[in-house]
Design a protein that fits this description.
Layout lengths: L2 H29 L10 H24 L12 H18 L7 H22 L9
Helix pairs in contact: 1-2, 1-3, 2-3, 3-4
The chain binds protoporphyrin IX containing FE (HEM).
Length: 133
């Protein structure tokens, strides 16, 4: 497995753990209210699990498994891949920061996520082809 996929998948598992822990906290707080501000963690729970875990696992697996180039770099520009990985993760953290940081940070987080997805699309597009084509 390429190094970039390893890091995409590792990061996705960290978000899975963090997202489940936040979910468990919200659930426990629903039963016995011990933390009145717990609802501020709901956006982070959703962002960690939907973008941080589900989307990131798909990106890492796609980079690994799609047909490779027969000439040049087998999986395309590694720099572009790492840039996409970094922007995406910064984007997830900023988007999940509601309640901690002003709204402009969450907006910036979404912009970074979209930018990262665009870069990933540019990287992966030529590798979406029939086997042997
Ligand atoms: C892949 C796994 C998961 C995903 C994608 C997910 C996603 C979501 C989403 C989208 C919401 C917001 C629902 C809304 O606004 O109406 C939510 C709420 C919530 N989630 Fe999760 N969740 C996951 C796993 C978990 C787990 C494992 C727990 C508990 C251990 C949990 C506990 C909660 C709680 C307590 C709420 C608030 C529900 C309420 O409105 O009372 N979630 N989750």
């Amino acid at each position: 497995m390429p190094r970039l996929s390893v890091w995409f998948i590792r990061a996705s598992l960290i978000y899975l753990l963090a997202g489940f822990m936040l979910g468990a906290l919200l659930l426990a707080n629903n039963g016995i209210e011990f933390m009145p501000s717990a609802w501020e963690l709901l956006p982070a729970h959703v962002e960690f699990l939907l973008a941080g875990w589900v989307v990131q696992l798909a990106l890492g697996t796609a980079y690994w498994i799609l047909p490779r180039h027969t000439r040049g770099l087998a999986r395309g520009s590694t720099e572009l891949g790492w840039l996409s990985f970094s922007l995406f993760n910064l984007g997830v953290l900023l988007t999940a920061s509601s309640g901690l940081l002003p709204g402009a940070f969450q907006f910036a987080g979404r912009v970074l996520e979209v930018l990262a997805a665009g870069l990933f699309l540019v990287l992966i597009w030529p590798r979406i082809k029939a086997y042997g084509a």
